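Hi everyone,

Forwarding the result from last night's run.
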Amino acid sequence: MSRTSARYPMLLISILIPLAAGCGRSGQPKTTSTSAGATPTVTAAAAETPGAVAAVSYETAESAFGAGRYPEAVELFTAYNATHPENPWGHYMLGMSAWKTGEHEKALNAFDQALQLDPNHRKSLFNSSRVLLDSGRPKEALERIEKTLALEPMSNEGLRLLGRVRYELGDVDGAIEAYHRALSIDERDIWSMNNLGLIYIQQDRSSEALAPLARAVELRSNAPVFQNNLGTALERSGYPTAAAQAYEAAIAVDSTYEKAAVGLARVTSEQKPESTPVDLTALSSKFQADIETWRAAVVADTSTVPVPAVGDSSTATVDSVAVDSVSDSVLVSGRIVSDSLEECESEEDR
């Protein structure tokens, strides 16, 4: 064998060894497990293309959202949208996920992308208006709510949002009217009842808050926010004993509910029992009769639901605290304090 031919096998081996090592590092598709039981799928093309985005299924991303893993859901829906940019629901769910993580601008951008694909995407209009309200931009929220009501004039969800934005813009009577209309469409709309009660509390009309809050508690007694708000209304209306019972009911559901605990301590220490007991069942029945009256008025009105523009941007406040439809209120040293809670009405269509 010649010296030249003897070198060929060694040369061939020196070429093949790096190739084999390279295949071992990058020749197989890689999957990244984002959580237990949730592994995004990866296409062969994505694995072979440098810089390609791994293909994530809608179901995987939705599963993360449904499990409350919102930061993960943001990442997964971002990846899903990169490979399915034409699906408005992917952008919508990215908006919902970003909203849950407090990324309001990212949420708005995602909702707007969904609306570019489908200008009448009802849930994107509704929930982007909620994000705008949470961001202190009620005028912009009003524009979107007006559009949804133009598409669906008898939507109690749209009317409930209209009530929120009207109150934010200082139109108290308009807000109350919107909640009346929402309840005339859905007489079991507990969040409209709660929000209506909050308006009355924050407008120093607590006795008027008793009926809607009594009905809300009757329908959902295990909601501590409703029990706490009812306790506040009862306390301010001169019923400390009944208020204590409502605060106790809130604490029984959520033992960490600090506001209810503060309210209970306050009314208990005052020891001023009411001269006459309050009949919450009768107040609830009266409120149901009121809803029937509002419903008759809506039926008699054959025109579409009016959505008048609000003239100024002033915000109705009590002691410099603005009302919020997902807040609960309690008196602390004579003033109303609000804190935000998760909003049940924001559940998205699937």
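The chain has 16 helices and four strands.

Cheers,
N.
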